[in-house]
Design goal:
about 375 residues; alpha/beta; Rossmann fold; 2 domains; six-stranded parallel beta sheet; 12 strands
């Protein structure tokens, strides 16, 4: 079976990149994959998928009808897709829109089924953009199968676009991971709490990741454990949000926090190995429609690979990545009191910390890319046989 994969982005560390590397890496052992990628990412794609055919396009995810420039890039992309001369059995878009629009065009021109993966926010945010909404509704209506990365994402998409999905099969396929393969089990099984109580967050510093909440949790925790530290790893732009965070820290005299920015994989491993627990508290958009949310939360499984228990907020699909009371604790997004109490327990009860961390390692070993690929292969075969 020849499958055309439409990739949203690969260049910088992101959930999209992790998803593409893991899923396509596993599926390419079972199907003949052809990658359709943004032209500026062709070299990077060649490095990570050297044995797969790659076809550059003007844009996949970085264009929409919200601007004239975006509309022009989409038109250029459509013309490029029209020029593709290749037989495909199936097209799989690794994001709902605009990546899914490119996949829709390719599937129509190739006369084959179109499968869509939807990651959280990008599965619903187009409800707020009139012209994109019209196109996205058509993309969803014509899909052979919709595969959100969590049940929560599935429910949210159906909330906004259910009327065009009445004849579209929907099967949530939980994200896989391969973090545990690069972290020896003894790292997780033999870990001990470090001398300095240390919280760790990994993720781009932006409002949806909820650092305004996790910093409040840390500030309250430090009143109980003055030696505690908080390491924040991930791209940290100098913008209005990060300035607000620093102003909050200054006004409340929150000490012991370090923003490390983006780091190498080796450095990231060191942060995980010297952490006491992992915390990330994503927040939903505060507008009435709440379109911005966490689709799943692969990073919680990465923490599990190192044997860390986690504290998280119940936002989107997070509760499907973290098993409350088993691999960590999940609280309402603004329940700072609950998060502080949980963090204090995990920092002062070493056996509880180690037991939850080991359970998180076992959970990470369960949610594999092989499992996800098996599910997709069944969906592929059903879609192709039903043409």
């Amino acid at each position: 079976m020849r499958v055309g994969f439409i990739l949203p982005a690969l260049q910088k560390p992101s959930g999209w990149r992790t998803y593409a590397l893991g899923l396509i890496g596993e599926l390419s052992r079972r199907v003949e994959g052809v990658l359709f990628v943004p032209a500026q990412e062709l070299a990077d794609t060649r490095d990570v998928f050297p044995n797969l055919r790659r076809i550059p396009l003007p844009a996949t995810q970085s264009a929409s009808l919200r601007s004239l420039g975006g509309a022009w890039r989409l038109w250029q992309t459509y013309q490029s897709v029209r020029s593709v001369e290749m037989s495909l059995d199936l097209v799989h878009s690794l994001e709902a829109y605009p990546t899914g629009l490119v996949g829709h065009w390719l599937s129509k021109l190739s006369g084959c089924p179109h499968i869509i993966t939807a990651h959280g926010t990008y599965g619903v945010i187009w409800q707020a953009s009139f012209f994109d909404r019209l196109l996205y509704r058509q993309v969803l209506r014509c899909a052979a199968h919709l595969c959100p990365v969590s049940n929560a994402t599935s429910k949210r998409i159906q909330q906004f676009f259910g009327e065009v999905l009445t004849n579209v099969p929907i099967t949530p396929v939980l994200n896989g991971n391969d973090f545990y393969q690069s972290v020896p089990p003894e790292v997780a099984l033999n870990r001990r709490l470090p001398e300095t109580p240390t919280l760790l967050s990994v993720g781009e510093v932006k409002p949806r990741k909820g650092y305004q909440v996790s910093l409040q949790v840390f500030a309250r925790l430090r009143e109980k454990i003055p030696r505690a530290r908080y390491d924040i790893v991930g791209f940290c732009p100098n913008n209005a949000y990060t300035q607000r965070l620093r102003e909050m820290m200054n006004c409340q005299s929150i000490a012991g926090v370090t923003f490390h920015g983006s780091v190498s994989q080796t450095a990231l491993a060191s942060f995980y190995e010297r952490a006491s627990l992992f915390v990330l508290t994503p927040q939903e958009e505060t507008s009435p429609q709440k379109m911005s949310f966490e689709g799943f939360g692969l990073v919680y499984l990465e923490a599990g690979a190192y044997g860390l228990p986690v504290i998280a907020s119940d936002c989107g699909g997070v509760a499907e990545a973290v098993r409350h009371g088993e691999t960590g604790y999940v609280y309402p997004p603004t329940d700072v009191d609950g998060m502080v109490q949980a963090a204090y327990r995990l920092l002062t009860d070493e056996q509880l910390n180690l037991n939850m961390g080991r359970a998180n390692r076992r959970w990470a070993e369960t949610l594999t890319w092989e499992r996800a690929a098996d599910q997709f292969l069944q969906i592929y075969q059903k879609a192709v046989s039903g043409r």
